[in-house]
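[agent] plan:
  1. take the single chain provided in the ticket
  2. run structure prediction with default settings
  3. attach structure tokens to the ticket
  4. add a short note for the reviewer (M.T.)
[agent] executing step 1
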Amino acid sequence: MRTVIGKYVLALAVGIMLLPALAAAQVTDRITVTTKFPFTVGETKLPAGSYVIQPLDDESEVFELSSTDGKMSVLFETMGAELANIALKSEVVFKKYGDNYVLSQINQAGSKESVVSVASRSERRHAKSSGKPSKEAVATAKAP
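[agent] step 2 finished; step 3 output follows
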């Protein structure tokens, strides 16, 4: 009896550990996003412009954001999240602290799974000085 219970507990623990990776795997498309404002990803400040966002691989929680001209690139860590409803459109959500925008979330149309960027020191400083942020969503397109 103990052995059977132990196997179920082990299976449950493994399943729980895999959930974030499975959620992150839901946003697998290469997408493009164009912003009209500069923004921060992790500790990196980027100018307004067009960018491609993609996971490093199908099961990665690390994403790459690179400018479409190939001059800039940054890696950032994410974690899986579940939306309350299925996303109707693909979009990147930015948190706005005063005049500072921070990449916050990536939603893929037709999915309840989302990825959220892990809060950086830079974002925590903005939050401390500006309080609760507003949010701004920018539509994305599938990248070639």
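[agent] step 4 note for reviewer: Residues 66 and 73 are 4 Å apart (CA to CA).
[agent] ticket updated
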